[in-house]
Write a structure and sequence with these properties.
single chain, mainly alpha, elongated
Length: 151
Amino acid sequence: MPKRKSFRPPAPPRRPFRPVEETPRPSARPDRPSVKPWRYAALSLLFSILLFAFFLVGDRGFLHVRRQRHRLADLQAEVSGLATENEKIDAEVKALKNDPKAVEKIAREELNMVRPDEVVLLLPKGWTEKTAAEHAAETARHAAAAKKPAP
């Protein structure tokens, strides 16, 4: 089978060479930049502000970490307070197991128990403040009497 020739359009006629006059052509790089330098600075500043805000208030931001540290310090203080309270309670339990006087003290103070040959005086609440006020008034009267000259 004979080979077919592909169809090729005729080439356009060549133009004669003419010298080009020196006309200013647009260059690839314009004299004035399309993006002004202040826009770079503004974009950079905006990005910095957003980044700072993210690190300040984000999920793991500075403020959140600071709150967590304060909470941790409060919880550690509470734990140490509870530990000392546990130590006191352990000491009290040991004393109650081993010392009969400690058991007697608890029975007398909290359960109002007495021995058969004892008499208990129940005083109203606040009696110590009343006696302290009376004692202070009496002391003031004695001091005033001491300052008066004798007639």
